[in-house]
Design goal:
Chain lengths: 354, 77
């Protein structure tokens, strides 16, 4: 599905990362890798350092910390916020929505919309699309998009498929109306037949958590995880990404009328370094235009990986400069989405530690 | 080329004998992480980038299937 939005823009991005760093070398003993294999995979996959929250830290802690930073610096005013969209797969409760919890704790006005969206790897694009749609309303002038996840708590420490790559974090993105004529192009696709390619099997109403679902079971590759843990069909997800993402970007560029060469950066979701390099090779995009350094520095925090890639790789450049950027997220759902947007002259674009 | 590939495989999983005519996937001699290591090594050695769409277990099941994959990706035998 192709979508087009006019007169909207992003005016700031803040990434909030846990200060707690965990190193791959300290976790090698958890996995059944030889040392030589570990080193090879470290280079290929980007296993290195990931940011993990301390026990008890939730997504609202990260988001509220980020909000207060912006309020204190007077970059954002409470009364201006007309909507909060929170995209997460680690809500604090089944009910109420965590966005309402955040609104209450911050003391924001009642005359606003709060909504949670259950999405992950494509969560930045899904959230932006929702923000653009809300901004079509006369009453809504400023939307705050929160992407936040602390999924490390749902990954088995003895699962070499997922644990070395996982990261926690949150991001705050401000989206507003503009008088300037501009167009933002987007597309989105979903395939729920592969809903179990990335899944936490137990803990919801379908399969409630019980002592039996907590039992650790060894799979064929020697990983230990329970039904309460995140499980990923790595091969299937890899092949889905390689098959669907390049034509999605071709379609987006064709729809927008822009050439690939006119795109300054391809800021893509980063499941692992190997997958991103293979995508860049297939699409004929030089690596410097498609950064792949988030997993090795911070881990993959789902929908937070793109805001992290932007703030880490472009940061202060986006205060003064403007770039044409292609965003793409792909994963859980399955969901895949991309957006072509002019990004720049931002009020803020940085990373802070919690 | 055949011996070069056997040597690379042997380096990745020294506990197995890759000169035998086994199906490496069915026999559990290569897992998905071994395939990542293998692709990275082959890309470096032959100065290619194996197409992501070709990174399927069946293309790494035997030495011959790996050779066919390399040829498909532009390596001269």
């Amino acid at each position: 599905m192709n979508l087009k939005f006019n007169n909207k823009l992003i005016t700031g991005i803040l990434t909030i990362l846990p200060a707690n760093e965990v190193k791959f070398e300290d976790e090698i003993a958890n996995y059944n890798f030889s040392e030589a294999k570990s080193l090879k995979l470290k280079m290929a996959m980007g296993y290195n350092t990931h940011r993990i929250v301390e026990e008890g830290v939730t997504i609202s802690d990260l988001c509220i910390f980020g909000f207060n930073y912006l309020f204190e610096k007077e970059i954002l005013k409470k009364e201006e916020i007309d909507a909060i969209i929170l995209v997460t797969q680690s809500p604090e409760y089944f009910m109420p929505p965590t966005s309402n919890v955040i609104q209450g704790k911050l003391g924001l006005k009642q005359d606003m919309i709060c909504m949670d969206i259950n999405q992950g790897c494509a969560g930045f694009e899904i959230g932006l699309i929702q923000a653009f749609m809300l901004l079509e309303q006369e009453a809504i002038n400023k939307v705050v998009l929160l992407n936040a996840d602390v999924l490390s708590q749902k990954v088995s420490k003895r699962d070499r498929n997922s644990n070395p790559l996982i990261g926690d974090g949150a991001s705050i993105t401000i989206i507003e109306k503009t008088e300037n004529k501009n167009s933002i192009f987007a597309n989105i696709k979903m395939d729920g037949t592969a809903f179990d390619a990335l899944i936490i099997p137990a803990g919801g109403f379908k399969t409630p958590s019980t002592p039996a679902t907590s039992e650790m079971i060894e799979d064929a590759a020697g990983n230990f995880r329970s039904l309460n843990n995140l499980v990923m069909k790595g091969d299937a997800v890899f092949n889905f990404v390689q098959k669907e993402v390049p034509p999605m970007i071709d379609n987006l560029l064709k729809y927008s009328g822009y050439q690939r060469e006119n795109v300054d950066y391809f800021m893509f979701h980063q499941p692992n370094k190997f997958m991103l390099q293979k995508l860049a090779d297939k699409m004929g995009v030089p690596y410097h235009k498609m950064p792949n350094n988030i997993v090795e520095n911070f881990g993959n925090a789902s929908g937070v990986s793109i805001p992290t890639a932007i703030t880490f790789n472009l940061g202060q450049k986006l205060i003064k400069e403007k770039y044409k950027i292609c965003l793409a997220g792909f994963g859980v759902g399955l969901t895949w989405s991309s957006i072509l947007i002019d990004l720049g002259n931002l009020d803020f674009c940085e990373i802070i530690n919690y | 080329m055949k011996q070069q590939i056997i040597n690379i495989l042997q380096e990745i999983r020294p506990e197995f004998d890759f000169s035998q005519n086994f199906n490496f996937i069915e026999e559990g001699m290569l897992d998905s992480f071994d395939i990542v290591s293998l692709v990275t090594t082959l890309d470096e050695k032959y100065h290619i980038s194996i197409d992501g769409m070709d990174i399927l277990p069946e293309n790494f099941a035997t030495v011959d299937s790996i050779i066919n994959l390399l040829i498909k990706n532009g390596v001269n035998q």
